[in-house]
Amino acid sequence: MFGSGSRTVLTALGALCCCCALARAQPGRVYTKADYAQAEKFMDYNVDPLIYHTVDHPAWLADGRVWYRDAGPAGLTYMLVDPAKRTQAPAFDQGKVAAALNAAIGSGKLAISLSARLDAGHLPIDDFTLGNGDDTVLLTIGRRLVRCDLRGAGSCKDAGEVLPATYDLSPDGKKAAFIRDNNLWVRDVASGRETALTTDGVPDFGYATDNAGWIHSNNPILAWSPDSKKIATFQQDQRRVGRMYLVNTSDGHPALSSWRYPLAGDTDVTMIERVIVAADGDAEGVKGPRVVRLKMPPDQHRSSLCDDVSCAGGHGWDDVQWSEDSTRLAFVSTSRDHKQEWLRVADAATGDVRDVLGEKVATYFESGNGKVNWRYLPRSNEVLWFSERDNWGQMYLYDLTTGALKNQVTHGDGDVTQVLHVDQTAREIYFLAVGKQPGRDPYFSALYRVNFDGTGMKLLTPEDADHDVTMSPGGRAFLDVASTPTAPQTSMLRDQDGRVAMEVARQDISPLRAMGWKPLTPITVKARDGKTDLYGFLFKPTSFDAAKRYPIVDLVYPGPQTGSCGSRSFSGAHRDMQSLAELGFVVVCIDGMGTPERSKSFHDALFGDMADNTIPDQVSGIRELAARYPWIDLDRVGIYGHSGGGAAAAAAMFHAPDFFKVGISESGNHDNRVYEDDWAEKWVGLLKKNADGTTNYDSQANQNFAKNLKGHLLLMHGTMDDNVPPNNTLLVVDALIKANKDFDLVMIPNAVHNYGAARPYVTRRRWDYFVRYLAEGVPPVEYRMKPYVEQQAALPWSPAR
Questions:
Q1: Which of 424, 408, 407 is nearest to 416 (CA)?
Q2: What is the dihedral of CA 758, 761, 762, 767, to 10 degrees?
Q3: Residue 799 binned pLDDT confidence (cut-offs 50, 70, 90)
Q4: β-strands 56-60, 66-72 pairing
Q5: Is the pLDDT of residue 550 over 70?
Q6: Three-state DSSP class for residue 155
Q7: Residue 532 contacts by C-beta under 8 Å, 6 or more apart in sequence?
Q8: b vs e for 229-268, b when ≥16 Cβ sit within 10 Å of the residue's Cβ?
Q9: For position 109, what pLDDT does the model report?
């Protein structure tokens, strides 16, 4: 439950006088399918195609050029920017490629089926590389590689199969590591020959395995050495870890899904034994592969930030870095409660391990904001280390031999969010940070440069905007995509000093404006303490009438790993907030206390008390908005959220039942004792059982407060949710039944955490619920949404799998 301070805030804020002379926005209104169609116009799959010239997924090539996807009225163009010449143009002749692909497919030379001919603006290309003086292009289309010769009329031919995601390619591109039968194998890319690198892997004690909780893929978790001869990985021990069980829905015997899933408080959790595997044919003078087991006890975690999946996404292993000569391996070990870290260095040949430095904190340690930020710098015998010891995320420089602090590198308010490039020769660090420019949205990201000794910090992206930066591999240039929640992208190529070399693109949102789109309203309100600024977004109907009073709906996510509102870059749609507003609501999101990218004390505000769920901040913020805007009806307040937001929405209905009248809880982790151990134990602390049978997690279990429900509550969950298992919601259902409370429940057969194909149905049911119980209206019967995936079902191509 809320602490006494939270209850005081809720009581003290009291009911504010609203301008009752304003008319309610059409209570009792009968909504039509046309009303819902108007709302659906603002879903992402409808508004995104109306935004032209977005710089999408930029990628630097080895030759120093950068390419990106540019969506325009005629389709997609693959653009290539040359910093040296300060020019840009289409990367290749897409018309010629389309014709060559059509010809090759028509003749049966390519294993790609088509229902219609390809055209230049709609090529099914996932990736490409240029060669032979740009006369050839190697395309990735689904699972196929296709090489096209652009000379003359052009021709395309099959160039083989793309390695699946379950392979991890070596730096030299010659080997691919993968898992088979719990062991690590390597495949020679050219010949296809496969070799077992380990042989003693067994079920639940395999090598490089990805499942540490809710993730259970076949992707190998490892780090190749720079010389492509060694692999750093682990043997993951889950032999004594408890299982999670889910059963599918079918018209015959159901299938049981079972995997290892450690829970908070379990005696036995996943452990890793770190190893280095020599992957070349003759390793360190020993014929054949060789496994070097590091001389240390098993580790509790594989990463300080992301135990279940690589923080960087895709392959790789966070908190593991090789020396440039491939002889040593630096890594970070993390205690089970995340309060202590050790930076260690291992000898790749012997397995000897030495401790370099460590840090212990009172709450939880993080090695970066979203991605690890420390850097192993053996060339200068130093370590760049991230810490929040001065209440902000800063970088510190340490001696690699002694572990002694040399100096603090970054200073002042604001968090370093990501180190992008370290120039060891010039002894300069390029990094992204938030909150360092007074008077700006503290979530706006900007690029800075600073010297190793902490002097000379320079802002390289001065515009008052959120900057998405992609640096060239050598750090000589970077692509800067600047935007705000209300202003579209301007993309610039800048040199290493931040000077604009050329403008690359400007988003064109005129088609978006022509269809009636209007920008959101950024908001700032005070937190529960009446002092701390909180930031968020407010959405109004495009037909907004200030003479009416509108019910307000709050989209909540309490963190602690992220907030309610998400990115500050420009977007035509922010989930379904504008769409929901079109149905006659004011919709808000507020990033409350306990969420990241502010100070350490701000982030720690809810430590050990996840029951808080930022609800006191949501209440104080909504009350302030209602006092500011008389068209907000404070008697009709709704709330919804997914996952952690689902738990928060239910908690709001149970802990502030007189304020929130309608709540929708989707896939909520309502009791963290039945959720994955790493997440809960980091933010709540280790489970402690008291002599009377109670625990420190009891106050954070929503089912214990279900009896307080007064308003309308809709619970939704997928029955095959392997992230937040559905028994989280069923515990609340059981408590509501025992308390004789009315509520609504939708269990979605065979749906996973994000609902998959059922997402349009979930969105429609969400709209219906708020329309019926908060707007006091009548929704249309079974409105059918037509999302992008359905609109694109008849694409003229489908790669043969």
A1: 408
A2: 160
A3: very low
A4: antiparallel
A5: yes
A6: strand
A7: 526, 593, 602
A8: bbbbbbbbbbeebeebebeeeeeeeeeeeebbbbbbbbee
A9: 83
**pLDDT at residue 302 in the model:** 85
Mean pLDDT of the chain, nearest integer:
92
Using pLDDT thresholds of 50, 70 and 90, give the confidence band for residue 796.
Answer: very low
Position 58 pLDDT exceeds 90: yes
Nearest CA to 584 out of 44, 22, 35 is that of: 35
Output the pTM of the full model: 0.93
Determine contact, residues 189/171, Cβ cutoff 8 Å.
no
Q: What is the mean pLDDT of residues 646-655?
A: 98
Is the distance from CB of 639 to CB of 652 less than 8 angstroms? yes
For the chain, give the percent of residues with pLDDT over 90: 84
The pLDDT of residue 8 is 36
Structure-token match 């116009």, residue found: 41
CA-nearest of 651, 767, 667 to 709 is 651
Question: In this structure, what token pair is assigned to residue 582?
Answer: 């079109």
Give the mean pLDDT of 331-360: 97
Query: Strands, E, within 361-455: which ranges?
Result: 375-377, 382-387, 394-399, 405-408, 415-423, 428-434, 445-451
Q: Which residues pair with 418 in a beta bridge?
A: 432
| Mean pLDDT across 240-260 | 95
DSSP state of 675: S
Residue 539 phi, psi (nearest 5): -120, 135
Tokens of 760: 């349009």
Partners of 330 in the β-ladder: 321, 345
* Token code pair at residue 514: 């022509």
Secondary structure (DSSP) of 284-351: TTEEB-EEEE-SSPPBS-S-SS-SSS-TTSSS--TTEEE-TTSSEEEEEEE-TTSSEEEEEEEETTT-
Cis bond upstream, residue 560 (ω within 30): yes
First to last CA, the chain: 52
Rounded CA separation 241/262 (Å): 6
* 791, pLDDT greater than 60: no
Length of the chain measured in residues: 801
B/e letters for 662-671, b = 16+ CB within 10 Å, e = fewer, are: bbbbbbbbbb
The two three-digit tokens of residue 632, written as one number: 């907000």
Q: Which residues contact 158 (CB under 8 A, 6 or more apart)?
A: 104, 109, 110, 111, 144, 145, 146
What is the dihedral sign for C-alpha 302, 305, 308, 309? Answer: negative
CA 185 to chain centre: 30
